[in-house]
Amino acid sequence: MNLKLLELFCCIVEEGSISGAARRNYLSQPSATKSIRYLEEEYGALLFNREKGSISLTEVGKTLYPHAKAIIHEYHNSREAVRYKNEKVQSQLKVGASFTLGEYFLPSVISDYIGNTQLEDAGTVQLFIENTPNILEKLDDKEIDVAFVEGEVVNNNLIKEAIAYDEVILIVGSTHPWSTVPHVLTNELKNEKLIAREKNSGTRKIIAEHLEKKGVLKDIFSYMELNTTQAIKSAVRSGLGYGFASYYSVKQEIDNGLLIKVPIADLTISRPLWCVKKPLNFEKPAIKIFSRMVKDSFVHN
């Protein structure tokens, strides 16, 4: 089997046309068409429906596509693994992360990874930050090598490992009435202004679940809704109300007295932080090294 034929097949699927794939691979269209004919002969079946200048995958083509992608991915990973054994050289590592981990935790780990003198060549790291569902979709499609998320992982095709636990805490500004109290009760939350994340936020969902169990969610209304943790922190610091945030996202402000953590006597909100991988026969050595550094970093924080 010629791997180039599988790569061309996948390229045609992704480009949506033979001509587009031919341009991308610096081939003439007749040459690309001929190559696909060879591949169809290899499998003994048509891979594309060709009608009125357009193409679409046959059922056989739809079956082949994920296998072809996996073969190509595994081949390149095997080359990288061998290159690492021979030359101790790492290739680019593509890391995906949900917002809390990507914005507040991973940058320092990436810096340590690249500057690690034990790695003769750590290569480069590309960080993708999106919400958890989008990051896990990228991982499943093999657009990234490893993911670090704090949301729910329901895809059974992925391997997840809890590497730490994060507490979602209540925060107020230094001038807020709660800034000097030893704790509050969930029933008191309805009496003050809540600065909340947007409705589809993973952090907001886990808070809502816990408050609903306490029977107080229906009485708590958002005074303001903001779509980033940074915006929540700024609004809370300005004295506009109280908010909830990941401990890791506000640790620096708490240490510097800019935000105050207020314990809730009758409620603790904790969630796992996941390292998620796609099962591979040949895993980049960089994935194992970087994942271990992330896990170790939580131990020391």
Automatic annotation (TrEMBL):
What Gene Ontology terms describe what this protein does at the molecular function level?
A: DNA-binding transcription factor activity; transcription cis-regulatory region binding
Question: Which keywords does the record carry?
Answer: DNA-binding, Transcription, Transcription regulation
Instruction: Please give the coiled-coil regions recorded for this protein.
Output: none
Q: Which Gene3D superfamilies match?
A: 3.40.190.290, Winged helix-like DNA-binding domain superfamily/Winged helix DNA-binding domain (1.10.10.10)
Q: Which InterPro entries match?
A: LysR_HTH_N, LysR_subst-bd, WH-like_DNA-bd_sf, WH_DNA-bd_sf
Is this entry keyworded DNA-binding?
A: yes
Its family remark reads: Belongs to the LysR transcriptional regulatory family.
Q: What is the name listed in the Swiss-Prot or TrEMBL entry for this protein?
A: LysR family transcriptional regulator
Which organism is this protein's natural source?
A: Salicibibacter cibarius
